[in-house]
Amino acid sequence: MKPALSVIFFTVASGAGLGLLVWLLVASLMANHIRMDATTFYQGAAIAAALITAGLFASTLHLANRKNVIYALTRVRTSWLAREGAFAIALYPLAALHLYGLQSGMPQLTPITLGLLIADCIVVLYCTGMIYGCLKTIPRWNTWMTPVKYVLFGLMSGAVLLPAVLTLRPVEIGPVGRPMVAIVLLALGLVLYLTYLVKNPRNQHTINDALGFQQGKVRLLDVGHSHGTFLTNEFGFSVARDKARLLRWIAIACGFIVPLILCYFSQWFWTASIICLVGLLVERWLFFAEAEHVVRLYHGQQRV
Amino acid sequence: MRLGLAIDLDTCVGCHACAVACKEWNGQSLMGGAPDYDAYGKAPSGTWYNRIRHYELEGDPTYSPHQCGSKADPSAHQPLSKTINVPMSCMHCEEAHCVTVCPTGASYKRAEDGIVLVDPSRCMGCNYCAWACPYGARELDQDEGVMKKCTLCVDRIYDAQLAEADRQPACVLACPTHARHFGDYDDPQSKVSLLAASRGTQSMLDDLGYKPTNAYLSPRKPVEVKTELPLRQGLSDKAKAFVNRLIQL
Amino acid sequence: MCACRCGINVTTEEKDGIPHIRFIQGNRNHIVNQGVLCAKGSAGIMKQYSKAKLQHPMIRRPGTERGDGIFDPISWDDALDLLTKRLAHIRATDPKKLAFFTGRDQMQALTGLWAQQFGTPNWAAHGGFCSVNMAAAGLYSIGYSFWEFGAPDWDRAKYFVLWGVAEDHSSNPIKIGLDKLKSRGAKFVSVNPVRTGYSAIADEWVPIRPGTDGLFALAIVHELIKHDWIDHEYLVKYSNAPWLVIDAPGTSQDGLFLRDAEGKPLVYDQTTQSACRMEKGVAPALNWQGSLPRGGRAEGEGVATASALNQASPPPRQTVRTVMSLILERYSAGEYAADAVAARCGVPAEQIRRIAAEIAHVAFKETIELPCVWTDIYGNVHNTVVGRPVAFYAMRGISAHSNGFQTCRSLHLIQMLLGALDGPGNFRSKAPFPRPIPPAQLPENDASLINAPNTALSKTPLGFPTRPEELALDANGNALRLDKAYSWEAPLASHGMMHAVIKNAVEGDPYEIDTLILFMANMAWNSAMNTAETQDMLKAVDEAGNHKIPFLVVADAFDSEMVRFADLVLPDTTYLERYDAISFLDRPISEPDAAADAIRHPILPLDRDVRPWQDVLVELAARLKFPAFINPEGERKFAGYTDFIVNYERAPGIGFLGGFRGKDGDKSLRGEPNPNQWKAYIEAESFFAHHWPENQRWMRGVNRDYLQAATDAAFIPKPEPIIAQLYSEPLQKFRLAGQGLYAGPLPTREVDKARLTKYFDPLPVWYSTDDVGAAIGAPVDSPAADAFPLHAITQRPMMMYHSWDSQNAWLRQIIAQNYLYVATSKASELGLNDLDWVWVESAHGKIRCQMKTMEGVEANTVWTWNAIGKMSEAWGLAKDASEATVGFLLNHLISESVRSSTGERLSNSDPITGQAAWYDLRVRIRKADETGVWPKLEFGAKQ
Ligand SMILES: Nc1nc2c(c(=O)[nH]1)N[C@H]1C(S)=C(S)[C@@H](COP(=O)(O)OP(=O)(O)OC[C@H]3O[C@@H](n4cnc5c(=O)[nH]c(N)nc54)[C@H](O)[C@@H]3O)O[C@H]1N2
Ligand SMILES: Nc1nc2c(c(=O)[nH]1)N[C@H]1C(S)=C(S)[C@@H](COP(=O)(O)OP(=O)(O)OC[C@H]3O[C@@H](n4cnc5c(=O)[nH]c(N)nc54)[C@H](O)[C@@H]3O)O[C@H]1N2
Ligand code: SF4
Ligand code: SF4
Ligand code: SF4
Ligand code: SF4
Ligand code: SF4
Ligand SMILES: [Mo]
Hints:
The structure holds three protein chains of three kinds.
Chain A: H1 5-29, H2 38-61, H3 80-104, H4 110-133, H5 145-166, H6 170-173, H7 180-199, H8 207-211, E1 217-222, H9 230-235, H10 241-265, H11 269-289, H12 295-298
Helix pairs in contact in A: 1-2, 1-4, 1-5, 1-11, 3-4, 4-5, 5-7, 5-11, 7-10, 10-11
Chain B: E1 3-8, H1 17-27, E2 36-37, E3 45-46, E4 51-58, E5 81-88, H2 97-100, E6 107-109, E7 116-118, H3 128-132, E8 138-141, E9 146-149, H4 154-157, H5 170-174, E10 180-184, H6 191-199, E11 215-217
Chain C: E1 8-15, E2 18-26, H1 39-42, H2 44-48, E3 58-60, E4 71-73, H3 76-93, E5 98-102, H4 108-118, E6 123-124, H5 127-130, H6 132-139, E7 150-152, E8 159-163, H7 171-184, E9 187-191, H8 197-200, E10 204-206, H9 213-226, H10 232-238, E11 244-246, E12 267-269, E13 274-276, E14 289-293, H11 306-310, E15 317-322, H12 323-331, H13 338-345, H14 349-365, E16 368-375, E17 381-387, E18 390-394, H15 396-399, H16 404-418, E19 427-429, H17 447-451, H18 501-507, E20 515-519, H19 531-539, E21 551-556, E22 568-571, E23 580-582, E24 594-600, H20 613-623, H21 641-647, H22 677-683, E25 687-691, H23 704-712, H24 729-738, H25 750-759, H26 769-772, H27 783-787, E26 790-795, H28 811-814, E27 820-823, H29 824-830, E28 837-841, E29 846-854, E30 861-865, H30 882-885, E31 897-899, E32 905-907, E33 922-927
Parallel strand pairs in C: 5-6, 5-20, 8-9, 8-18, 9-10, 20-21, 21-22, 26-30, 27-29
Antiparallel strand pairs in C: 1-2, 3-4, 3-22, 7-19, 11-15, 12-13, 14-15, 16-17, 23-24, 24-25, 26-33, 27-30, 28-29, 28-33, 31-32
Helix pairs in contact in C: 4-20, 6-16, 9-13, 9-14, 9-16, 13-14, 24-25
The structure holds ligand MGD (2 copies), iron/sulfur cluster (5 copies) and molybdenum atom.
């Protein structure tokens, strides 16, 4: 699949934003344990909101006909893309309500809105994952791991961001301890990613399946056009094997291992966050670049 | 009604006539066009609703019952090779995932006849439906920014202005080998239903569960002639053995 | 009508008051395409809107070089004045200094008439490229032919063999027909080195080695006669198998038919045991040899008898034998046994034997008999017509080889032995065929007429010689025609030899010319062999700096490669903008069941300053005062083309169009001119069809009622039987000339003698194309053949018409780059992979191109799609269009000339017909280090 930078940025940025929001909210619940003042909370929330919103905007960049984005929510009953949009947009009124609750002293509201917000963030992450995970046409994506990855990686990057956010006002809150949540999630993320790489959901369909000839060897003779088409452009992308291997190591190292080490052994949470996000960007790029659509069988690929 | 095409892989010679007729009909119709990009430039490209691809099937004895090529000359030895031309447009799937994934509702499947269409006035050009289509049937119109696909010539098949015989998809009318048939698969007596039943069809990624309406009629088993003529010998020894018959002018 | 022969309905739409094409659809009622339409037809809309359309007449800018492609606009008046002046001068001095050659059009009746009226023999069309081997072999054997003069009986054939066809002229009928065959369960065999297109859907594919079909066919003949799987009745009654051939080696009579005093051939009657004419009641022997008392004249028509030559008294008796006995003897020989030919043609012996048996089985065990009352030439009335439902069709895979004529005759030999001609299930004739064998039309060869100023020729320049006297030679035996058609070099060049024109003109061999007019032919590109050098020849100048071809006029509709080399460009209309007639005097659109012709009429108004070329021809004819175009008062007779078509009569009642004749338009095929004929055609959907009544539909060469009807329509001169010629006497006469035995003109050059002796075999033979020297100039098995072990051929892509469809915005999306296809096995042997760039070398030159592997190609053959490669900037395409940067043309590797072993320059052609031998090409390939196509030609630049 063509790795559209806008979509990659969107999924990573809003994923991290959603994760951060979740952890901020959780942290605010556990105010007794985590020393976080309101300013820090709002600063963190602003960062989360910026990430989410920038991501959402970026996601519209790849639309060829943006004026019709107004219809984008009309098929929530069937479309994960519509659902994602709807739940993502729902974040804003929910957040407003929550704010209202916090500020105007309708404290009875806040536990509800807080719960809803956390749930919505996770649902949005899940929907994003399902946008890809539901596609039977792309075996690499069509696995339970895809939505789990989206949720987990979002929460994970948010968890790495949280201590970074907390360091914004170090004077008042003092030294921050080891962010165990981030560390645990990074470890889980690593396990999940490695599982995904090992399981490597692929090679499920052959060119013979695509054409319905089960005996003999099918090969493409001529694709019927000399230059690119929408299909080759959209689905024809391939990464060189060496490059993919290198990028995979980068993703593993930057996305998980280095942040984990930094979080465990140091206080360089911003560095850890940025490295983690870079790693996730690489992971996401590979997620697209390595995904193979079954239409490639018709273009001559032997297996997808 | 379940309207669709039956495409005969036994007679398709891969001439691209259907693809061009489709482009011609749809390129400028009310349903919206099928534009060209860099038409006279370095790498011409464009939006098509129907494309023909050509494959080779090697080593399937069903389709090449006879070994060919000279055994006396091993360098001329031929594999059992069959060339197969495969035109592909929208299958008008019963489980049209392209429709369910569409967030805007621009993609829809008509209840009355099963035709899958895109409403350009709602489409936001997200490509998501194209991702969901296993058969490469959808292509983005870069000029309008909306998704395009085979309409089953919905603007021909119901057009009462046209003569009855012309109420057929453009590709079906054009196809020189009559490899394309159009009809209602819900009617067991329709030409397409009968053809599909009698000829057998190819399963194309059926395990994905899209239930394509269009059917690809399998190539027929090659005709074999059983000879039962007397093998007379002896004539090879020149003309002497040849017996004149008394045939009067 | 569409670009070639199909009927179309064009829907237009007004945009700003101007009609635009909205949709082109096949005409369901049309007898050719029956509603279907090919990709080119549908894409016609984009040809109309092509950027490459020429806009106005142009003249080469003074001071620029030919081939720079820099022009100034010129008005039509000035252009025509200039041309008229030049042509008038040529016509008044030496008319043959005008050469007028036309492309793959179907207006030869007019262009030929024009040339004849001008007085130049130097006219021909593309037939010598495509099809003359097929046309000539058929017309010298069965009276009709593959290519456009016949079609398989798609509705009844049970066994169909397609020899070397990728697309052909009647591509839609073939496609419609293949579907019919397959749905009826008939067997379809494709003999073709490559398995694409039609071959893809064949029940059996025979991947033959190029150039060896003749061997394969004669091995089938071997099987047929070995097992007596032949149609005795057909051979006795309707072929020359029982005719008696004189066996007198070393005399001028040898191999000629025994004829009576009136020149009628004789047979041996088994009842009276004597030589008789083929007359009712006679029972001819098929196999007989012996001696007969000297009957009537053995042979007339200026041929001296043996006695005249030998100065001896004639022997009282002479030895004769039937044609059939010769056939039995020749083809039962071991050299035609399946085992003997298998390795050579790459078809296993077992497959050859099986196919022969299948053909025979279908012919004789699956015979069909249709109720139909018809009368044969002997007056016998039949209540049924018997079909031996085996049909063949063949085209350029056979034709474009230097052994194509004899190979095609070999195919006809099979058909004749099976009696599978023009009956139900057979290959059937299309009006105006069958015609006498060969057609009674001789090429102009009167040197005094040809050299006479301001004088029309007595006949059109092309025809069918039957003996050396009828060649177009001057007193010294040199060619009268620029292309050397009908010279000793190509005696049966029925279509002329366009591929020899430029080279001969530039070399002044046989003579120099003044003006060359090219119409609808891309002679600077893929109509040329040896393209790069051809371009140099077009530019060539003598010591004085004058062009060797002094003036070059190109009539084209688009900005082709050829246009850029013109001195004067006369822009034509497109086929949607003009009137045209596809005439009975030419190659009409007939189908077996109906004689039919067709017209075009303008659908769109002209949006630029162009004129229909045919109007220009009629205009020039009037200006130059051609006798047929002016009345006795010297005034122009025809206002323009449409007027000409309606009112010109070749014979009383016979004009260009056969439909809606007579004052009221109620006469068919023959009748006075009808002033409203165009209107009538337009109302009748632009075509006319005369459906043959049941009794005139079958066995037409020997069908009395048909022959009469055809005579009435002036398709044939007399209602005389058309007897299939297994043995060709005209060929024997040329062979005698080669042997020095013919009492008439004789060749003097050894190379000609050898050619005539070797190739003019009256019975079909096979010889290696390598022998002819066409491709490599050396006999097979010589080191040269080893040096170039691969055959290289092209195929027409179904969605591209030669060079001129790459301008089409839609079609070029389908193919804008071609590859050289190499068999997977061969590629791995040579260490080559998909998408490698390779050098392809022939004895003549080399090219660099990109390759792909495939399974479905004969292992010693490489091939590509024809004419995808383009010159940079031609055709309205960008300079870096992939047609010019990665697409390639195979023609660079093909030489237009070959050297004989004695050093003469000969054209690269079939030695009998002069058919361009495109597919004899032999090459070798190796991996290239560089990428990109080579040579890359550019206008105004020298590679
Ligand atoms: N689409 C399209 N249609 C056309 C044209 C076009 O340019 N495009 N051109 C028109 C013209 S001008 C012509 S002349 C006709 C020609 O029409 P075709 O006769 O179909 O011409 P080719 O494409 O040369 O096809 C020759 C076939 O013979 C095969 N072949 C080559 N050598 C041999 C051999 O030795 N033996 C056998 N058995 N097969 C061999 C090749 O693989 C190829 O399939 O087509 C006409 N129709
Ligand atoms: N290697 C290889 N070379 C081949 C062949 C092959 O098989 N292989 N085939 C050979 C054969 S059989 C042929 S016939 C030739 C054909 O080869 P070309 O001569 O290239 O034939 P076309 O492309 O049909 O067009 C000839 C010219 O006609 C022009 N034209 C088109 N429509 C009109 C019109 O309405 N009016 C006028 N005045 N001009 C028009 C086009 O612009 C073009 O310049 O190629 C030959 N060359
Ligand atoms: S073929 Fe593709 S576009 Fe057509 S209905 Fe099926 S999934 Fe949708
Ligand atoms: S591209 Fe258009 S039709 Fe397709 S999913 Fe997006 S909005 Fe729907
Ligand atoms: S049915 Fe119509 S839209 Fe669909 S492929 Fe055929 S011509 Fe194109
Ligand atoms: S028009 Fe018919 S034969 Fe040609 S590619 Fe299409 S389906 Fe095949
Ligand atoms: S073969 Fe194609 S281009 Fe030629 S006349 Fe027929 S439809 Fe037109
Ligand atoms: Mo041709």
